[in-house]
Input
Amino acid sequence: MIPFNKASITDKEIEYVVDAMKNSKLSGDGKYTAKVYEKFKELFGIENMLLTTSGTTALEMASLLIDLEPGDEVIVPSFTFSSTVNAFMLRRAKPIFCDIRRDNMNIDETKIEGLITDKTKAIYTVDYAGIPCDYDVINDIAKRHNLIVIEDSAQAVGSYYKGRVCGTLTPFGCYSFHETKNYVMGEGGGIVLNDPSYMDRAEIIREKGTNRRQVLKGNVDKYTWHDIGSSFLPSDLLAAILYAQMERFDEILQKRLTVWNTYAEELQPLVKEGLLVLPTVPEYATHNGHMFNIILPTDEIRTKLVAELQKQGINAYICYVPLHSAPMGIKLGYKPEECPVTEDYGARVLRLPLYADMTKEDALKVSAAVSEILHRI
Output
Protein backbone atom coordinates (compact mmCIF):
# COMPACT_ATOMS: atom_id res chain seq x y z
CA MET A 1 0.00 0.00 0.00
CA ILE A 2 1.35 3.42 -0.99
CA PRO A 3 -0.70 6.15 0.69
CA PHE A 4 -1.23 9.53 -0.91
CA ASN A 5 0.36 11.32 2.02
CA LYS A 6 1.98 10.48 5.34
CA ALA A 7 3.58 12.82 7.84
CA SER A 8 7.21 12.10 8.71
CA ILE A 9 7.36 11.77 12.50
CA THR A 10 10.52 10.70 14.34
CA ASP A 11 11.66 10.41 17.95
CA LYS A 12 12.68 14.09 17.76
CA GLU A 13 9.08 15.27 17.33
CA ILE A 14 7.94 13.02 20.19
CA GLU A 15 10.75 14.22 22.45
CA TYR A 16 9.91 17.88 21.91
CA VAL A 17 6.17 17.40 22.44
CA VAL A 18 6.80 15.63 25.75
CA ASP A 19 9.19 18.38 26.78
CA ALA A 20 6.58 21.00 25.86
CA MET A 21 4.03 19.26 28.09
CA LYS A 22 6.46 19.07 30.98
CA ASN A 23 8.44 22.28 30.66
CA SER A 24 6.63 24.74 28.40
CA LYS A 25 2.94 25.53 27.86
CA LEU A 26 -0.13 23.71 26.62
CA SER A 27 -1.47 27.01 25.27
CA GLY A 28 0.22 29.22 22.71
CA ASP A 29 3.35 31.35 22.58
CA GLY A 30 5.60 29.11 24.66
CA LYS A 31 9.27 28.35 24.19
CA TYR A 32 8.76 26.16 21.11
CA THR A 33 6.85 28.89 19.32
CA ALA A 34 9.86 31.15 19.94
CA LYS A 35 12.20 28.42 18.70
CA VAL A 36 10.20 28.15 15.45
CA TYR A 37 10.62 31.87 14.86
CA GLU A 38 14.36 31.58 15.48
CA LYS A 39 14.61 28.69 13.02
CA PHE A 40 12.75 30.57 10.26
CA LYS A 41 15.06 33.52 10.78
CA GLU A 42 18.09 31.22 10.60
CA LEU A 43 16.91 29.35 7.50
CA PHE A 44 15.25 32.14 5.53
CA GLY A 45 16.10 35.46 7.15
CA ILE A 46 12.47 35.99 8.19
CA GLU A 47 12.24 38.61 10.94
CA ASN A 48 8.52 38.99 11.60
CA MET A 49 6.40 35.85 11.72
CA LEU A 50 3.44 34.70 13.80
CA LEU A 51 2.24 31.12 14.06
CA THR A 52 -1.49 30.64 13.49
CA THR A 53 -3.97 27.82 13.94
CA SER A 54 -3.94 27.11 10.18
CA GLY A 55 -2.97 28.44 6.79
CA THR A 56 -6.61 29.49 6.55
CA THR A 57 -6.44 31.71 9.62
CA ALA A 58 -3.15 33.19 8.40
CA LEU A 59 -5.05 34.33 5.30
CA GLU A 60 -7.91 35.57 7.47
CA MET A 61 -5.47 37.67 9.49
CA ALA A 62 -4.06 39.16 6.29
CA SER A 63 -7.58 40.04 5.18
CA LEU A 64 -8.18 41.83 8.48
CA LEU A 65 -4.86 43.65 8.33
CA ILE A 66 -5.56 45.19 4.92
CA ASP A 67 -9.01 46.37 6.08
CA LEU A 68 -11.05 44.72 3.37
CA GLU A 69 -14.62 46.00 3.31
CA PRO A 70 -17.92 44.81 1.80
CA GLY A 71 -17.90 45.42 -1.94
CA ASP A 72 -14.11 45.35 -2.34
CA GLU A 73 -12.89 43.10 -5.14
CA VAL A 74 -10.00 40.66 -4.86
CA ILE A 75 -8.34 39.09 -7.90
CA VAL A 76 -7.54 35.45 -7.19
CA PRO A 77 -6.95 32.23 -9.14
CA SER A 78 -9.92 29.86 -9.26
CA PHE A 79 -7.57 26.86 -9.12
CA THR A 80 -6.97 26.85 -5.38
CA PHE A 81 -8.41 25.57 -2.12
CA SER A 82 -11.50 27.27 -0.71
CA SER A 83 -9.49 28.80 2.15
CA THR A 84 -7.89 31.32 -0.19
CA VAL A 85 -11.23 32.94 -1.02
CA ASN A 86 -13.09 32.22 2.23
CA ALA A 87 -10.49 34.35 4.03
CA PHE A 88 -11.59 37.53 2.30
CA MET A 89 -15.21 36.58 1.63
CA LEU A 90 -15.67 36.57 5.41
CA ARG A 91 -14.94 40.32 5.11
CA ARG A 92 -17.66 40.47 2.38
CA ALA A 93 -15.12 41.12 -0.35
CA LYS A 94 -15.85 39.65 -3.77
CA PRO A 95 -13.59 37.18 -5.62
CA ILE A 96 -12.72 38.06 -9.19
CA PHE A 97 -11.42 34.81 -10.61
CA CYS A 98 -8.37 34.85 -12.86
CA ASP A 99 -7.39 32.03 -15.19
CA ILE A 100 -4.13 30.08 -14.79
CA ARG A 101 -1.05 29.51 -16.91
CA ARG A 102 -0.81 26.26 -18.85
CA ASP A 103 2.81 25.63 -17.95
CA ASN A 104 2.77 25.71 -14.14
CA MET A 105 -0.93 26.23 -13.27
CA ASN A 106 -0.25 29.44 -11.34
CA ILE A 107 -2.26 32.62 -11.81
CA ASP A 108 -1.79 34.00 -15.34
CA GLU A 109 -0.16 37.33 -14.62
CA THR A 110 -0.90 38.54 -18.16
CA LYS A 111 -4.64 38.44 -17.40
CA ILE A 112 -4.60 40.27 -14.07
CA GLU A 113 -4.59 43.84 -15.35
CA GLY A 114 -7.69 43.26 -17.45
CA LEU A 115 -9.64 42.33 -14.30
CA ILE A 116 -8.80 45.45 -12.30
CA THR A 117 -11.66 47.88 -11.60
CA ASP A 118 -12.09 50.86 -9.29
CA LYS A 119 -13.30 48.36 -6.65
CA THR A 120 -10.17 46.18 -6.75
CA LYS A 121 -8.34 46.21 -3.42
CA ALA A 122 -5.97 43.26 -3.54
CA ILE A 123 -4.47 40.36 -5.46
CA TYR A 124 -4.26 36.99 -3.69
CA THR A 125 -1.68 34.76 -5.37
CA VAL A 126 -1.20 31.02 -4.81
CA ASP A 127 2.18 29.31 -5.14
CA TYR A 128 0.65 26.16 -6.56
CA ALA A 129 2.55 22.89 -5.99
CA GLY A 130 5.33 24.84 -4.28
CA ILE A 131 6.19 26.76 -7.47
CA PRO A 132 6.12 30.54 -7.04
CA CYS A 133 4.16 32.88 -9.29
CA ASP A 134 5.99 35.51 -11.35
CA TYR A 135 6.16 38.09 -8.58
CA ASP A 136 8.18 40.78 -10.32
CA VAL A 137 5.38 41.16 -12.85
CA ILE A 138 2.57 40.85 -10.29
CA ASN A 139 4.14 43.29 -7.82
CA ASP A 140 4.68 45.80 -10.61
CA ILE A 141 1.00 45.60 -11.57
CA ALA A 142 0.01 46.03 -7.93
CA LYS A 143 2.30 49.03 -7.48
CA ARG A 144 0.95 50.79 -10.57
CA HIS A 145 -2.66 50.26 -9.47
CA ASN A 146 -2.14 50.81 -5.72
CA LEU A 147 -3.13 47.26 -4.81
CA ILE A 148 -1.91 44.94 -2.04
CA VAL A 149 -0.62 41.46 -2.86
CA ILE A 150 -1.20 38.59 -0.42
CA GLU A 151 0.98 35.53 -1.07
CA ASP A 152 -0.78 32.25 -0.31
CA SER A 153 2.41 30.27 0.07
CA ALA A 154 0.75 27.39 1.90
CA GLN A 155 2.47 24.81 -0.32
CA ALA A 156 5.77 26.61 -0.82
CA VAL A 157 7.74 26.63 2.44
CA GLY A 158 11.35 26.48 1.31
CA SER A 159 10.70 27.30 -2.36
CA TYR A 160 12.43 30.26 -3.98
CA TYR A 161 11.68 32.91 -6.60
CA LYS A 162 14.85 34.34 -8.15
CA GLY A 163 16.76 33.54 -4.98
CA ARG A 164 14.12 34.98 -2.61
CA VAL A 165 12.20 32.60 -0.37
CA CYS A 166 8.48 32.17 -0.90
CA GLY A 167 6.41 33.85 1.75
CA THR A 168 8.62 36.96 1.63
CA LEU A 169 7.74 38.17 -1.87
CA THR A 170 4.79 40.44 -0.98
CA PRO A 171 3.71 42.41 2.11
CA PHE A 172 2.11 39.27 3.59
CA GLY A 173 3.09 35.62 3.18
CA CYS A 174 0.81 32.86 4.46
CA TYR A 175 2.12 29.36 5.22
CA SER A 176 0.35 26.11 6.05
CA PHE A 177 1.76 23.43 8.32
CA HIS A 178 -1.17 21.07 7.90
CA GLU A 179 -0.45 17.36 8.00
CA THR A 180 -0.50 17.27 4.17
CA LYS A 181 2.26 19.85 3.77
CA ASN A 182 6.05 19.43 3.65
CA TYR A 183 6.63 20.60 7.23
CA VAL A 184 3.82 19.85 9.63
CA MET A 185 2.37 20.57 13.03
CA GLY A 186 -0.89 18.67 12.50
CA GLU A 187 -3.08 21.73 12.11
CA GLY A 188 -1.33 25.07 11.90
CA GLY A 189 0.01 27.89 9.80
CA GLY A 190 1.95 31.10 9.90
CA ILE A 191 1.77 34.66 8.64
CA VAL A 192 4.94 36.51 7.62
CA LEU A 193 4.78 40.29 7.99
CA ASN A 194 7.23 41.50 5.37
CA ASP A 195 6.14 45.08 6.02
CA PRO A 196 7.07 45.45 9.71
CA SER A 197 4.62 48.33 10.17
CA TYR A 198 1.84 45.72 10.36
CA MET A 199 3.46 43.68 13.15
CA ASP A 200 1.99 45.43 16.20
CA ARG A 201 -1.57 45.24 14.88
CA ALA A 202 -1.05 41.64 13.75
CA GLU A 203 -0.10 40.65 17.30
CA ILE A 204 -3.28 42.28 18.61
CA ILE A 205 -5.57 40.69 16.01
CA ARG A 206 -4.02 37.29 16.72
CA GLU A 207 -4.76 37.66 20.47
CA LYS A 208 -8.52 38.29 20.30
CA GLY A 209 -8.00 42.00 19.71
CA THR A 210 -5.96 42.50 22.89
CA ASN A 211 -2.38 43.52 23.54
CA ARG A 212 -1.74 40.36 25.60
CA ARG A 213 1.50 39.63 23.76
CA GLN A 214 2.91 42.89 25.10
CA VAL A 215 2.36 41.51 28.61
CA LEU A 216 4.22 38.32 27.69
CA LYS A 217 7.09 40.47 26.43
CA GLY A 218 7.09 42.45 29.68
CA ASN A 219 6.25 45.72 27.92
CA VAL A 220 3.01 46.38 29.86
CA ASP A 221 1.60 45.08 33.15
CA LYS A 222 -1.96 44.35 31.95
CA TYR A 223 -3.64 43.80 28.64
CA THR A 224 -6.81 45.37 27.26
CA TRP A 225 -9.06 45.27 24.21
CA HIS A 226 -7.65 47.35 21.33
CA ASP A 227 -9.06 46.02 18.04
CA ILE A 228 -11.11 43.30 16.43
CA GLY A 229 -9.47 39.89 16.33
CA SER A 230 -9.84 36.23 17.16
CA SER A 231 -7.97 33.33 18.77
CA PHE A 232 -5.46 32.67 16.03
CA LEU A 233 -2.54 31.26 18.04
CA PRO A 234 -1.83 27.52 18.16
CA SER A 235 -0.79 25.37 21.11
CA ASP A 236 2.91 25.26 21.93
CA LEU A 237 2.60 21.45 21.72
CA LEU A 238 2.00 21.81 18.00
CA ALA A 239 4.85 24.30 17.72
CA ALA A 240 7.10 21.63 19.25
CA ILE A 241 6.26 19.29 16.37
CA LEU A 242 6.98 22.03 13.85
CA TYR A 243 10.29 22.93 15.47
CA ALA A 244 11.45 19.33 15.11
CA GLN A 245 10.32 19.36 11.47
CA MET A 246 12.24 22.55 10.74
CA GLU A 247 15.37 21.11 12.38
CA ARG A 248 14.98 18.34 9.80
CA PHE A 249 14.41 20.86 6.97
CA ASP A 250 17.21 19.67 4.66
CA GLU A 251 16.48 15.98 5.26
CA ILE A 252 12.78 16.32 4.45
CA LEU A 253 13.47 18.52 1.43
CA GLN A 254 15.97 16.12 -0.10
CA LYS A 255 13.72 13.11 0.44
CA ARG A 256 10.82 14.82 -1.28
CA LEU A 257 12.98 16.01 -4.17
CA THR A 258 14.26 12.46 -4.69
CA VAL A 259 10.70 11.24 -5.20
CA TRP A 260 9.79 14.25 -7.38
CA ASN A 261 12.85 13.83 -9.60
CA THR A 262 12.25 10.08 -9.92
CA TYR A 263 8.73 10.72 -11.18
CA ALA A 264 9.97 13.38 -13.61
CA GLU A 265 12.57 11.04 -15.09
CA GLU A 266 10.51 7.85 -15.20
CA LEU A 267 7.36 9.43 -16.66
CA GLN A 268 9.13 11.45 -19.36
CA PRO A 269 8.69 8.71 -22.02
CA LEU A 270 4.90 8.97 -21.57
CA VAL A 271 5.09 12.64 -22.50
CA LYS A 272 6.72 11.77 -25.82
CA GLU A 273 3.94 9.26 -26.44
CA GLY A 274 1.26 11.86 -25.75
CA LEU A 275 -0.13 9.93 -22.79
CA LEU A 276 0.31 12.73 -20.24
CA VAL A 277 1.82 16.15 -19.57
CA LEU A 278 4.28 16.75 -16.73
CA PRO A 279 4.64 19.87 -14.57
CA THR A 280 6.90 22.69 -15.73
CA VAL A 281 9.19 24.53 -13.33
CA PRO A 282 10.07 28.03 -14.61
CA GLU A 283 13.72 29.07 -14.73
CA TYR A 284 13.05 31.66 -12.02
CA ALA A 285 11.85 29.06 -9.52
CA THR A 286 13.48 26.60 -7.13
CA HIS A 287 10.71 24.36 -5.81
CA ASN A 288 10.39 22.28 -2.65
CA GLY A 289 9.05 19.01 -4.03
CA HIS A 290 5.64 19.59 -2.51
CA MET A 291 3.49 18.03 -5.20
CA PHE A 292 3.83 15.99 -8.38
CA ASN A 293 0.88 16.20 -10.70
CA ILE A 294 0.24 14.90 -14.18
CA ILE A 295 -2.22 16.10 -16.79
CA LEU A 296 -4.13 13.29 -18.51
CA PRO A 297 -5.66 13.54 -22.00
CA THR A 298 -9.27 13.35 -20.72
CA ASP A 299 -11.30 13.26 -17.53
CA GLU A 300 -12.38 9.72 -18.42
CA ILE A 301 -8.78 8.50 -18.61
CA ARG A 302 -8.04 10.16 -15.27
CA THR A 303 -10.99 8.40 -13.64
CA LYS A 304 -9.91 5.01 -14.99
CA LEU A 305 -6.29 5.58 -13.95
CA VAL A 306 -7.28 6.44 -10.37
CA ALA A 307 -9.42 3.29 -10.12
CA GLU A 308 -6.70 1.05 -11.55
CA LEU A 309 -4.03 2.51 -9.28
CA GLN A 310 -6.30 1.94 -6.29
CA LYS A 311 -6.54 -1.73 -7.22
CA GLN A 312 -2.74 -1.89 -6.92
CA GLY A 313 -2.74 -0.20 -3.51
CA ILE A 314 -1.65 3.21 -4.84
CA ASN A 315 -3.63 6.26 -3.75
CA ALA A 316 -3.74 9.17 -6.19
CA TYR A 317 -6.22 12.04 -6.10
CA ILE A 318 -7.54 14.84 -8.25
CA CYS A 319 -6.43 18.28 -7.12
CA TYR A 320 -9.09 21.00 -6.92
CA VAL A 321 -12.51 21.39 -8.44
CA PRO A 322 -12.13 24.97 -9.74
CA LEU A 323 -13.81 27.38 -7.34
CA HIS A 324 -15.66 29.31 -10.02
CA SER A 325 -17.49 26.15 -11.17
CA ALA A 326 -17.81 24.44 -7.76
CA PRO A 327 -21.29 24.43 -6.19
CA MET A 328 -20.56 27.61 -4.21
CA GLY A 329 -19.13 29.31 -7.28
CA ILE A 330 -22.22 28.49 -9.33
CA LYS A 331 -24.41 29.71 -6.47
CA LEU A 332 -22.56 33.03 -6.55
CA GLY A 333 -23.21 33.36 -10.29
CA TYR A 334 -19.86 32.40 -11.80
CA LYS A 335 -19.77 30.40 -15.04
CA PRO A 336 -17.40 27.57 -16.08
CA GLU A 337 -16.39 29.34 -19.29
CA GLU A 338 -14.99 32.32 -17.39
CA CYS A 339 -11.68 30.50 -16.73
CA PRO A 340 -11.21 28.07 -19.64
CA VAL A 341 -7.68 26.87 -18.85
CA THR A 342 -8.60 26.30 -15.20
CA GLU A 343 -11.70 24.37 -16.26
CA ASP A 344 -9.73 22.25 -18.72
CA TYR A 345 -6.85 21.39 -16.41
CA GLY A 346 -9.10 20.95 -13.39
CA ALA A 347 -10.80 18.09 -15.21
CA ARG A 348 -7.55 16.35 -16.19
CA VAL A 349 -4.99 16.90 -13.41
CA LEU A 350 -4.00 14.09 -11.05
CA ARG A 351 -1.73 14.21 -7.98
CA LEU A 352 0.54 11.24 -7.43
CA PRO A 353 1.61 10.09 -3.94
CA LEU A 354 4.48 12.14 -2.52
CA TYR A 355 5.74 12.29 1.06
CA ALA A 356 9.10 12.47 2.81
CA ASP A 357 9.29 8.84 3.92
CA MET A 358 8.33 7.54 0.49
CA THR A 359 11.28 5.72 -1.06
CA LYS A 360 12.69 5.91 -4.54
CA GLU A 361 11.52 2.31 -4.97
CA ASP A 362 7.99 3.43 -4.12
CA ALA A 363 8.22 6.15 -6.77
CA LEU A 364 9.50 3.65 -9.32
CA LYS A 365 6.57 1.37 -8.51
CA VAL A 366 4.05 4.17 -8.97
CA SER A 367 5.68 5.29 -12.23
CA ALA A 368 5.66 1.74 -13.61
CA ALA A 369 2.01 1.32 -12.64
CA VAL A 370 1.01 4.60 -14.30
CA SER A 371 2.84 3.59 -17.48
CA GLU A 372 1.37 0.10 -17.60
CA ILE A 373 -2.18 1.32 -16.98
CA LEU A 374 -2.06 4.19 -19.50
CA HIS A 375 -0.78 1.81 -22.19
CA ARG A 376 -3.61 -0.59 -21.37
CA ILE A 377 -6.72 1.53 -20.93
